Amino acid sequence: MKAVITGITGLRNRGVEAMVITTIEQLRQRQPKLAMSILTETLDYDEVRLQQYNVDLISDGSLRPLHKLHRWRNNLSQFYKPIAPAYKDMLRLLDGASVAIASGGDIFSSDYGVNFLKRQLQPLEYALDAGVPVVFLAQSIGPFKTQTEAEIWLNVARRSKLVTVREGFSYKYVTKDLGLSSDIVKHTSDPAFLLPPASPEIVANLRKLYNINPDRPVVALGISQGICRYTRTDYEQHIKVWSQVIKMILDEFGAQVILIPHVHDYRPHNDDRILAGQLQRLFNFDPRVQLAGAEHTASEFKGLISTCDLVVSERMHAAIAGLSSGVCTLPIGYSVKAEGIMTDLLGAEMVHQGLLISAQQFLDIDTACNTIRSAWQQRQQVSAHLNSVLPEIKQRTATNFDLIAQILA
């Protein structure tokens, strides 16, 4: 029995790592001998990160030539040669598969362009053609900018065995606006809510490593080097706002700052360490502003974040690390996912009382500082509410894997 996991853009993104690790561990708790093949953009790096999990990794680079091959086969079938290397890779991926699981969290929308959307759907279409059941796992879906893009997704989703969505906004959008049958759509939660944090001993040592003073509060900042590219906003203004926010945290809150670079990337426009370094430099490497800059795992980041007093984050899974640990967390959102997840946890009224800010609103210094100041003032109330709802949210997360286990049975 084998599960195929797709939608993996690479574990340099610790949000992707959080979803992949949780998926592997949760499925193997239910099916200990389950084999797994993972289609990923960063094969060499992920082989190192997943060494202990005994999974088969396949580069998704093979899909692009396969797509061309598919077209050539259709147009010039007399030249079709099934021994092509890309064809072999896809055969290897799907060989013996009992289920194909689309991970990734927010990859089925218009946010990253139609070509990216098609590329993520491509292996799922091959799985369906091969008779392998397809599952969309805990996704935020859409909203799609055009009906054409919606139909591209629906063409695969309608033939799928199961679609789980990680927040209520997507459930309503998929079942009401797009008309997908509620028989196959289930409202669950993000897999990362079940990611185990690093051990208390490791977390204690990390706090010493980053010179965190136990007598001062700590604010974790999940800064994003890539958010200005996604939202087409001003990068220099983005840095200017963050520097004012950090100054407020240091001077007004009397707190320390730990910068969380949740995405390391070989592409400079998406590597959070670059922005973090710039911010440290602006503060002349003030020891109250620390960068958690080691090659941390998602669990180590979560452990570190869980000890903070407030999290402000542009990276959704750095935010989920705080939320799932019961820490008051203010996401800076650029899509439906942040508002949907926060509303599931806190309710619409609480979210709109200063516990969510859009990427565009964040670029106004007064709005950004006032919103973070409001979150700081209500952090204990928010933490208490989170701790009261987290058992239900984590049960919803577990439901994802219970449902997949039923398909595998």
UniProtKB/TrEMBL annotation:
It holds the Pfam family PS_pyruv_trans. Keywords: Transferase. InterPro entries: Polysacch_pyruvyl_Trfase (IPR007345). Coiled coil: none annotated. GO terms for molecular function: transferase activity. PANTHER family: COLANIC ACID BIOSYNTHESIS PROTEIN WCAK. This is Polysaccharide pyruvyl transferase. It comes from Nostoc piscinale CENA21.
